[in-house]
Design brief:
alpha/beta; 4 domains; 493 residues; 5-stranded mixed beta sheet; 4-stranded mixed beta sheet
Length: 493
């Protein structure tokens, strides 16, 4: 929450000490009270504002070298003392760490001619680096040299800036601090959604209609999209991955042929004869017809003639999971000409439709019998086909997880943890970041990997480390591409 009273005091004192020589901005917050004075650089052409923190009410000066270049160091140091008096209090533990790390960063970077920048990362660690200015975007970018993990996350960046020695020293000294990540408590409302999301994802998994990369798009509820905390997102993925991994081990104990395999084979034959054949299609019967129509339209666009459809929905699958008989829906699938028709069918036309639908049913029953089933059907086009004998529904994931290409947006990068369970994945694109990094991923099938970055500099810097990492994680990899905006570079492996 903004502290408007403190903000007004900051503006008054900053203007009194520094006058109008600089374009300054101020911001202040409650609990605990802390205010900042920022230097604002305004683009004369667009009015965009690039902001850097000059100091805060804790008394630290963030831009000492810059202030000295402007001939304002004495005034800035005086302002820092006066700001500290505006909100006198002991720093919190988190602020103490911030000041300690900042002081260490100054010792290393100021002799190299750079003002140190310290920022909190999403993972609860502090990043130490320097600012560069992106004139095209008109903003200052933090170039991270080291973190309180004791690492140099982007060696290519340190090399580009000529600060490799400083990055190594920072990493060593920061790692020796014994810092433990400091994050806000998990949001209770989001944490409460985790069990429901996990249950919904695993339910979709057991229905075995959607491949893993689309499970989170098929939940039929907004809860996953309402979980923004990366710790909670990871918790969901870890539970899902554990279940998927256990299923993979369980499948090794299954007989060579299970009833779902025979049904798969029957459906394959029907597809070859011009049928749409879908398993666990949508949540309802009407939804199953919509799925059938969508598949039929796509295949018609590819020049196929569609004879009819056969499917069962997720309610049918849920019943079959308990060992109950599986009921199949079937019939004709309208095309655009049927949809465009406005007048009702004549009695003769309606009779022909029923006859054609019954013929579809007979073909389905015939094929099912050829694959070891004894289907029960009245012969009436308006009755469903009951699959006998009854069996517990379960389907091999290799029949479902057939995704060959996958592109993940920045907001869903955590889903990249699923790549190891997509046995046919050949090409994958995602944004590496704090939430999930390249080293955490595994795939024995991946041939082409594309890594996306926000800035060209970050993409170029990444090449210094990601090639070796990618080789380790993806033994079959043939090419690695880094991309940012209009920049793209590919390394053949």
């Amino acid at each position: 929450m903004e502290n408007e009273a403190l903000q007004g005091q900051l503006r008054e004192v900053a203007t009194e000490v520094l006058g109008e020589a600089l374009s300054l901005g101020v911001v202040a917050w409650h609990a605990p009270p802390r205010g900042y004075v920022n230097v604002e650089d305004v683009d004369p052409d667009t009015g965009q504002v690039a902001v850097r923190t000059l100091m805060s009410t804790l008394g630290e000066v963030r831009l000492r070298l810059w202030a000295g270049e402007q001939g304002l160091l004495d005034q800035v140091e005086m302002l820092a003392k006066r700001l500290r008096a505006l909100a006198p209090r002991a720093p919190t533990e988190k602020e103490q760490w911030e000041l300690r790390v900042f002081a260490l960063a100054r010792e290393v970077l100021e002799p190299a001619g750079h003002d140190a920048v310290v920022e909190w990362r999403g993972d609860g660690h502090l990043a130490v680096g320097v600012h560069t200015f992106d004139k095209r975007e008109w903003r200052f970018e933090l170039e991270t040299l080291a973190t309180t993990r004791g690492d140099v996350p982007a060696p290519g960046c340190a090399r580009r800036l000529g600060l490799e020695a400083q990055a190594r020293e920072l990493a060593t000294r920061l790692g020796a601090l014994g810092f433990q990540p400091m994050r806000e408590p998990e949001p209770e409302d989001e944490a409460a959604r985790v069990p429901g999301v996990v249950e919904a994802v695993l339910e979709q998994f057991e229905y075995a209609h959607e491949p893993l990369d689309r499970l989170f798009d098929s939940l039929g509820m907004p809860d996953w999209d309402d979980i923004h905390d990366d710790r909670l997102q990871r918790r969901v993925l870890e539970r899902v991955c554990a279940h998927v991994r256990a299923r993979a081990e369980e499948e090794k104990t299954w007989p060579d042929v299970i009833p779902a395999d025979r049904l798969e084979a029957a459906f394959d034959v029907l597809r070859a004869r011009g049928f749409v054949a879908e398993m666990s299609a949508s949540t309802t019967m009407s939804g199953g017809w919509e799925v059938s129509r969508g598949v039929a339209d796509l295949r018609r666009e590819q020049g196929e003639t569609i004879v009819g459809t056969v499917f069962f929905d997720q309610q049918d699958a849920a019943s079959a999971m308990k060992g109950h008989q599986l009921h199949l829906a079937y019939g004709l699938v309208n095309d655009e000409e049927d949809d465009a028709r406005e007048e009702p069918l004549t009695e003769e036309e309606d009779a022909k439709v029923s006859a054609d639908a019954a013929a579809v049913g007979r073909t389905i029953v015939e094929v099912l019998r050829e694959h070891g089933f004894t289907p029960e059907w009245s012969g009436d086009a308006h009755s469903r086909i009951t699959l006998k004998p009854a069996f517990v529904w379960r389907r091999r994931r290799a029949r479902v997880d057939t995704t060959e290409t996958w592109s993940l947006g920045e907001g869903n990068r955590i889903l990249a943890l699923l790549v190891e369970f997509l046995p046919k994945l050949r090409a994958f694109e995602f944004f590496p970041g704090d939430t999930v990094g390249l080293r955490e991923l595994r795939s024995d099938s991946l041939r082409e990997l594309t890594l996306r970055y926000e800035r060209e500099e970050a993409a170029r810097d990444a090449l210094a480390t990601v090639v070796a990492q990618a080789r380790e994680c993806f033994p079959a990899l043939q090419s690695l591409t880094v991309r940012a905006g209009g920049f793209e570079e590919t390394v053949e492996l």
